[in-house]
Write a structure and sequence with these properties.
Layout (H helix, E strand, L loop, with lengths): L4 H8 L4 H36 L3 H4 L7 H37 L2 H14 L4 H15 L1 H10 L17 H25 L3 H9 L4 H12 L1 H17 L2 H6 L20 H8 L6 H29 L9
Helix pairs in contact: 2-14, 4-5, 4-8, 4-11, 4-14, 5-8, 6-8, 8-11, 9-10, 11-14, 13-14
Membrane topology: Multi-pass membrane protein
Family: Belongs to the binding-protein-dependent transport system permease family. CysTW subfamily.
Organism: Streptomyces boetiae
């Protein structure tokens, strides 16, 4: 079919200067992000390479058993704390987003939205101080009860810590930190639910919860995953809050959340040991940072694959 006069005029018309500037700026920003990401990866690989092939004697690590034995406990602690933080924060984020968008009065919803957004601006060290000074002592009694009555569950095996600075407290602090990010993303997705879908469900006799379950939650499924993955990324890389709260023991691998012996995380271990490290020890710490970089990249790629599998809704907004 030959092109119409309008199509020919559109294709041949020169772009405005503002359009060209915006298009070039957007393209340049995208390329710059890829260059920075590649530069970070190249730096980590180059600096970690000597440690990957060094002997345990050259590394001068505390356990003297090699790099894998050194990194595995902190990697385990990183994944453990981030997982349980996400388990705590994800249902709360969905519930808060639903309350703000579909249950709360307008004024209350606006005020609550501001409060949730402000939590994202609180420095992580403040959360760490709150967790160590207030939350940890408050959990001593409950964790002792958990150890006495639910000790048959591996995560409550005990004995409970006398200071309260446990992996459980670290997970709660991380959950509070990632809650604003996940809530903000999920809330905006729920607000974009096509109005016709909601009204059609209500018109067919559905209750408010049935309308949310059949129209709102399926529409926001990809955003729920995306918001949780953004929060998980922050939990994986959090440093100072975990370093302040967690009483870590080197080389420990345990699922127990309330014990006095807890595994550290990669980010906290780097922050605490880097100032006094030198030589090959620094390369070993950078190698652990490379592992954290790879884990974060894999998790984000997996989240993107899950989001892309969802089919877009059709219909009028």
């Amino acid at each position: 079919m030959p092109p119409t006069t309008e199509n020919t005029r559109t294709r041949g018309a020169p772009q405005r200067l503002g359009d060209r500037v915006f298009s070039g700026s957007a393209t340049g920003a995208g390329v710059l992000i890829l260059i920075i990401l590649a530069g970070v990866a190249a730096f980590l690989v180059a600096e970690a390479w000597p440690a990957l092939w060094a002997s345990p004697e050259e590394l001068r690590l505390p356990d003297q058993d090699g790099l894998v034995v050194y990194i595995w406990p902190v990697l385990f602690g990183t994944l453990l704390s981030a997982f349980f933080a996400l388990v705590i924060a994800a249902p709360l984020a969905v519930a808060i987003a639903l309350f703000i968008t579909h249950y709360a009065p307008r004024r209350l919803a606006t005020a609550l939205g501001y409060v949730i957004d402000l939590l994202a601006a609180v420095p992580s060290i403040i959360f760490g101080l709150w967790g160590a000074a207030e939350l940890a002592p408050a959990t001593i009694g409950p964790t002792e009860w958990l150890a006495d009555n639910l000790g048959f569950i591996p995560i409550f095996d005990g004995p409970a810590s006398a200071t309260g600075r446990t992996m459980l407290v670290a997970c709660i602090v991380l959950a509070v930190m990632i809650l604003p990010i996940a809530t903000a993303v999920i809330r905006e997705a729920f607000l974009q639910t096509p109005r016709l879908h909601e009204e059609a469900s209500l018109a067919l006799g559905a209750t408010r919860w049935e309308m949310i379950r059949m129209a709102v939650l399926p529409f926001g499924r990809s955003s729920i995953v995306g918001g949780c993955m953004l929060g998980l990324g922050r939990a994986l890389g959090e440093t100072m809050a975990v370093a302040i709260v967690l009483s870590a023991t080197a080389g420990v691998v345990s699922f127990d959340l309330i014990s006095r012996e807890n595994p550290s995380t990669i980010a906290a271990n780097i922050a605490l040991t880097f100032p006094e490290s030198s030589g090959m020890r620094i390369n070993a710490l950078i190698a652990s940072g490379l592992v954290l970089f790879a884990v974060t990249l894999v998790i984000n790629m997996a989240a993107r694959a899950v989001i892309n599998r969802r089919r877009d809704f059709s219909g009028a907004n």
